[in-house]
Amino acid sequence: MLYNIKYAPQNSSQIIGQQIALAQLKDFILNYKKQKNKSALLTGPIGNGKTSSVYALAKELNYDLLEINSSDLRNEAEMKSFLNSALGQTSLFFKPKLILVDEIDNVSGQRDRGAIPTLCKAIEKSSYPVILTANELEDSKFKPLIKSSYNIQYQKLEYKIVAEVLRSICQKENLAFEEKALNSLARKADGDLRAALIDLQICAEKGKIEFNDVNNLSDRKRTESILNALMLIFKSSSAENALHALENTDLEPNEIFLWIDENLPKEYLTPKSLAKAYEHLARADVFNGRIKRQQHWRFLAYLNDLLTAGISSAKEERNTNSIEYKPTMRILRIWQSNMKNAKRKEIAEKLAKHTHTSTKVALQQIPYFQNIFKKNSATEIAKELELNEEEIDWLKK
């Protein structure tokens, strides 16, 4: 059994790090008939106990829990049917009911445009507490839902709290562990306890949680997720299938650009397909620049569409060959170039200081000093400019 299921909280006392939010939620449920709002909206980072709190309180308070997921909200007819029966009918065993609408922030796009208004109307008529969960609600279409709900904020879990949970599970599972390995797992999870538990179980296959395994796991997960994303983008038979390819990657847009740029010519073999794909990649880069310069985060939607569906639709036909995707070496070359230029700049700054010139002028004189150091020991010059051994060696190359 997965650890996140096996060790799921059974009551409110087992919910960690969310005492204030939990108390607010419990009060909302118990005093629902006195509440002004018909629904409570739980917001906060992924994996920090929002859904677990609802399940734990339902068990503790002996409520029937009925759940509808965001994917179910996309079918308006089915949603109306579920909400009408869930919000209006009495429980089969005459117990109080609790309605959970999970991951409401996943409702997006033209196909889902009627979901939120329909949900708001249904909640107004509810005889039972409705609990909504979301990571964040930035889209303006959620404003009516936010305004009509009792908002409860769940905080990001500190790594020390996550590490303590991991330590407790290791003891229950009789797992040997290195302290720094658990701390590293907790830090990498970045407040996502559910992800930390999954990672812990993967590392536990050897019977011991070691620091090296934790580091390797992190790198492997990042690589595997982008490899799967690239395969979905390049091999999908339809653009719609490729749209969600990047959802499970934790790479920055700049890194994704480099991965696609490096592997695109291996997949798309005709000039027409390549030209069209690079056009989409270039347009995505334009939107990425606007996001950075102008902070227009709404362009993220265009960025994702171009990098996934756009590039996927550019191919004339799917390449049936199995391609080995590799990371770009450009980052390493950039780093090497920066290191080389950094040394040049350090020497130029010392030269500028002692010759009373600007750094720009001093940079132009570096080749002449390199010739001097290659032909002579130039000990006096090195001493005068206060050059260290590394800088002297660099000038001699």
Describe the overall structure.
With 397 residues, this protein is of the alpha/beta class. The chain folds into 4 domains: 3-153, Rossmann fold (3-Layer(aba) Sandwich); 160-190 and 197-209, no CATH class; 223-313; 330-396, no CATH class. The protein has helices at residues 3-6, 19-30, 50-61, 76-88, 115-124, 143-148, 159-172, 179-189, 193-203, 211-235, 239-242, 253-267, 271-294, 300-313, 330-355, 359-375, 379-385, 389-396, and strands spanning 39-43, 64-69, 97-102, 130-134, 149-153, 176-177, 208-209. The chain has a 5-stranded parallel β-sheet, with helices on both faces. It is extended and about 95 Å long. The chain starts with a helix and ends with a helix.
Could you describe the largest sheet, including whether it forms a barrel? 5 strands, parallel
State the separation between the terminal residues, measured CA to CA: 60 Å
Query: What is the element string, with H for helices and E for strands?
Result: HHEHEHEHEHEHEHHEHHHHHHHHH
List the strand order in the largest sheet.
2-3-4-1-5
CATH class of the largest domain: Alpha Beta
What proportion strand? 5-15%
Mean pLDDT: 82
What count of structural domains? 4
Report Rg: 29 Å
Shape-level CATH architecture of the largest domain = 3-Layer(aba) Sandwich
SS field, number of helical segments: 18
Low-confidence stretches: none
CATH domain fold name of the largest domain: Rossmann fold
